[in-house]
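In this supplementary section we document a worked example of the pipeline. Step one takes a protein sequence of length 664 as its only input; no multiple sequence alignment statistics are reported here. Step two produces a three-dimensional model, which step three serialises into structure tokens for compact storage. The input and output of this example are shown verbatim.
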Amino acid sequence: MQRFAQCDCTLGSTYSLHNERQGLRPARLRCSRATTTIDRIDTKADTVDLAETASSSSRVVITSSATSSSNGHSSGDAAALKDINTSSSREKEDLAILLAEEVARRRNFAIISHPDAGKTTMTEKLLLYGGAIHEAGEVKARAHNRSATSDWMELEKSRGISITSTAMTWCYQGTQLNLLDTPGHQDFSEDTYRTLAAADNAVLLVDGAKGIEPQTRKLFSVAKLRGLPVFTFVNKMDRPALNGFIIIEQLETEFNLQSYPVTWPIGSGDRFCGVYHRPTNKVLLYTKGGRGKGATGIQYDLDDPALQDLIEADLYEQLQEEVELLQVLGEEPSREDIMAGRVTPIFFGSAFNNFGVDLFLNSFIQMSCRPIPTRAKGNPAALLPVVEEEQRVGISGSSSSSLGTGSSSSSGGSIEGLVRPDSPHFSGLVFKLQANMDPKHRDKVAFVRVVSGRFQKGMKAKVARTGRTLSLSRPQQMFAQSRATVQEGFAGDVIGLTNPGAFAIGDTIYAGPEINFPPIPSFSPELFAYMRCAPNQKKAFNKGIDGLLGEGAMQVLYSQDEYITDPILAAVGQLQFEVVQYRMKDEYGVDTTLEPLGFSMARWVIGSWPAVEAAGRMFNTQIVKDRYGRPVLLFRNEFAFKQVMAEEGDKLGDLSPYALPPGS
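The serialised model returned by step three reads:
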């Protein structure tokens, strides 16, 4: 298991009661492992938490007030009240400054790609350059029994593919990066969508030799649904690759996405020797590093005569011609175009050889989107009005002092508005559940994206769906399978919470005024099969189904016939079935068999069982129920669906291809 460097920047800032009274401002303290900065109070006195500071200040003033009262000095009460208000205002101001600074230095992103485009290798090299690991675990390096840090499941290690999402956090050049590694196969596009619900940016990885591939299209459409800015990295330039202009044309044709090349390759295959960096008009020539180590590069001006001796003649001539052509593509796009997803900055390199990865990482930090306001419904006191135009660009940079009601006409009721990342009230979104990350303990972890405010270890928060209040006493910072206890978190951070069965995917948790984020829907399944086991393994079988169902690894349906208790697995792709069978055997010791069903579509009946009874018997359709007991119609094909809707549509009413938890 890979060790990772723990950075002090994830620890909580503390406030000194002594220095607060003296009016001193926070000093800057640098991390020992990274060049990031965090807010601390420079003091020799004992420090206490912000909440404790407020409590202590109040106790001192109230005691003073009581003494003055006993002496008959009514002016003491007014002075005490003034001191309380002054102290409270100062604490709010300090918290606002802290939140603004912490949000500004966070970057949250997910990587999406076609299988074998090098996504896991790219993830490893980003961690390597960021100092989070000291030796990259190349997926294919079996001789040394190493595997990728981000691929922790045994099936991922054996197949060399990513089939589950993981989260990794590290500090680099004063910025805290939160990377969400998504599955690369389209059969897990639903898991990818859930992961992108917690991301602010998407990194699209393209194989330089193959260009845009079928599953790249599917995953990009998922990213487009989320409206994320997209940064493109053309990988594997150390192999014979397509011309860069061909890939640019594919992006524009396939995705209607304009490109701005930030770097440009010099050669490909064995002749790939470096990149041209447009913003600085410099050429960076690389020298390969050792296995698992970073590459070294030397910069030259584009017009430096020495380049003619360092680059092969035909490559040098080609570089000069292509630089001229790049000027035709236009100047650097506006930040608004990038944030709106109309233009993608594009980079070229080789993650395997570490060429171009450093330039990408540095540019990404400068150009990417920090945490932004998020749509929600709830108490007007916690929401800003919805601004329909360019929310991603304008709102995220405005002052937190503008917090107000979402609608003056809806005061006191539940409204729709925006939750600011630097809001003083904590809120988070549960975007993934994972069972058995540590098989020895059969644990369950809920991945939570902090949306706003300040998360603190031990704080109490409410689950919006159930109204249940929980004590968040064991928060963990995730690094693939490894974990470290975290004291606090801010918008953009991903934390792991022990899941006692209280969370579901898409849950909102909050402390303060009530809010509720839009639920995360389940994709419409296309494959269905009964899963069965031997009678003597039934207990472990049911436990495994409950565990995998809870984390959203699949959808489970049940027959209406009370004598048929075998679950019906519903999946988006075939690989999901294989993973579930593997995990049932590996994690629960249960051998299973699958009996495919001849259906390809599922629709949830909005009108529930009365609508189904009114429709009566339907041909080429099977009626089943989901885990909440709601009716689901299975159709053999599109034709059968249209026929049923034509004959019984008036009685059935609306049908939904997506499933949401009750009460969403």
